[in-house]
Amino acid sequence: MARLSILFAPDVQLKRRALPVEQVDGEVRRLMDDMLETMHGANGIGLAAPQVGVLKRIIVVDVARPEESPQPWRMANPEIVWSSDDAVAGEEGCLSLPEQYAEVVRPSRVCVRYLDHQNEMRELEASGLLAKCIQHEIDHLDGVLFVDHLTSLKRGIILRKLAKQKRQMATV
Ligand code: NI
Predict the structure, then answer these.
(1) pLDDT tens digits for range 10-49
(2) How far apart are CA 110 and CA 134, in angstroms?
(3) Tens of pLDDT, residues 45-73
(4) Of these residues, 67, 91, 92, 137, which one is catalytic?
(5) Helix (H, G, I), strand (E, B) or coil at 23
(6) Among residues 10, 60, 23, which one has the least CA distance to residue 40?
(7) Ligand 1 mean position to 54 CA, how many Å?
């Protein structure tokens, strides 16, 4: 396994639509494992392939608390096939938008259909943090960041902060 480097916003690669995976083969499985290692190494709970510069519809999620044993999900071509009418607001962050958090409103429960790491089609009904995280990661596959759910005023403030951080990092 290997740690991959994570892209930080603003980055044009984070705004692109990712392509479906034809089948989950050894190469895709390796990428899923590398993404999980990268995510855990960054203390994240979810990561989408475009965040590591790979435009494929692949996400990994693990919302287990640090004291719990890992509960990793590996999903290719994830698709929301049902979402609840009731929505909840919750704070979100993103490994591509370091140290930025905001409240995002999303359906509280979803059913997601996906290919697992053995190329088997599966469905998962998720609620709570897992549902929120899966929706956030699937958004990445369509070039959507959590700040895109905010007002343009709030989004502008966060993106300007990130652009400034990036310039400072570049000059160090
Ligand atoms: Ni994210």
Answers:
(1) 899 999 999 999 999 999 999 999 999 999 999 999 999 9
(2) 9
(3) 999 999 999 999 999 999 998 889 999 99
(4) 137
(5) coil
(6) 60
(7) 14
How far does residue 7's CA lie from ligand 1's centre (Å)? Answer: 10
48: which 2 tokens? 């989408």
Query: Containing H/E element for 39?
Result: helix 26-41
- Sorted by where each starts, the structural domains of the chain and their CATH numbers stand as 12-171 (3.90.45.10)
Please state the pTM of the whole predicted model: 0.95
Check if 137 is active-site.
Answer: yes
Q: Is the peptide bond before 50 cis (omega within 30 degrees of 0)?
A: no
Token pair belonging to 73: 């999900």
Interval between CA 162 and ligand 1 midpoint (Å): 14
Contact between 106 and 132 (Cβ < 8 Å): yes
Q: For residue 159, give Cα distances in angstroms to 32, 91, 99, 105, 151.
A: 28, 17, 12, 19, 12
Give distance in angstroms: CA of 47 to centre of ligand 1: 6
